Amino acid sequence: MSSCAVSFIRKDCDLHRHYLYNYRADAIDHSKDSIPESTLQQPLLSEPPSPGGLESGQTTENGNGYISPAKMKATDSPKIPSMQSTLQAMIATFCILFLLKLVQQAYLDSLPLFSGKLYGWSSSQAGLMLAVFGLTVIPVNTAVGQISDHVSDRGLNAVTLFITAVGCGLLMCGGRPVWMYFLGGTLVFMCTVILEGSGMSLMSKIMHPSLARGTWNAGLMSTEAGTLGRLTGNLCLSLVSRITGVDTDSEVYRFGFMLFGLMGLLTVSNLGYMLAIWKRLAA
């Protein structure tokens, strides 16, 4: 091939390269003109909003649909109540669990005294009555589970405390007549069984999250309250019996009046404190 032909081919290739370069430059200029300026000023890399962060029609402060992770966490996370705001409610539920074991222990330990001294029952007959009370625990708890779906825990606790106070008032009569004593004992035992379930349920709902995750959770608190209640019930029984005596029928009547009068007073006081902080017990 001659040198003239080679030079002609090189010039033709250079001309095509020149036209191709100018075409690409014009295309880039036109594409820049078609893009809005606000879009060019936005950062190329931005964090997309969370799928549940924005609702339809909702805008953010800078108008670009971006919410910072810190702000999303502050708005989405539920408000945790302070320890001081839940302290009174926790005291009320602790007193309920303490009181139910106190009243229950005082009644069950004093039952052989009344049945033996006043009614002439044998120990076997008194034990049979306690066994009948024990058999009612499962049906009562089943009924409480059904009722709790329609009644709030604080309402169930308040009504049960009121009935417990009525039962203590009947037991203050000391077995005169006989049906009044056993009706009062039945109300007291049944209500203490109900309070054990509803009180623990209420405590688990109003307890501060930091305590619920730690050692002092609702299970331990209810166990300690029940232990202290049984201990205090036995101490009250011993103290009142030393004050009044239990040798004669009149002393037994006086013993029942003082013992269950004290139990009724504590129950009414607990109910009054619960009503005073009623709004704080909302779960």
Provide an overview of this structure.
With 283 residues, the protein is mostly helical. The protein has a domain at 83-278: Up-down Bundle (Growth Hormone, Chain: A), CATH 1.20.1250.20. Helix content is 75%, strand content 0%. The chain has eleven helices and no strands. The protein has helices at residues 3-34, 37-41, 69-76, 83-117, 123-135, 137-147, 153-171, 178-206, 209-213, 218-244, 249-276. The protein is elongated. The termini are far apart. Residues 1-6 and 39-62 have low confidence and may be disordered.
Can you give keywords for this protein?
Growth Hormone, Chain: A, elongated, 283 residues, 75% helix, mainly alpha
Topology:
Layout: H1 3-34, H2 37-41, H3 69-76, H4 83-117, H5 123-135, H6 137-147, H7 153-171, H8 178-206, H9 209-213, H10 218-244, H11 249-276
Helix pairs in contact: 4-5, 4-8, 4-10, 4-11, 6-8, 7-8, 7-11, 10-11
How do the SSEs run, as a string of H and E? HHHHHHHHHHH
> How many alpha or pi helices?
11
Task: Label the structural class.
Answer: mainly alpha
Assign an overall shape: elongated
Mean pLDDT: 76
Helix share, percent: over 70%
Just give the CATH class of the domain at 83-278.
Mainly Alpha
- Looking at CATH, which topology of the domain at 83-278 would you report? Growth Hormone, Chain: A
CATH-assigned homologous superfamily of the domain at 83-278 = MFS general substrate transporter like domains
CATH architectural type of the domain at 83-278? Up-down Bundle
How far apart the termini lie comes to 99 Å
- What is the radius of gyration? 39 Å
Uncertain regions spanning at least 5 consecutive residues: 1-6, 39-62
Strand % is under 5%
Strand tally, please? Answer: 0
> What does the main sheet amount to?
none
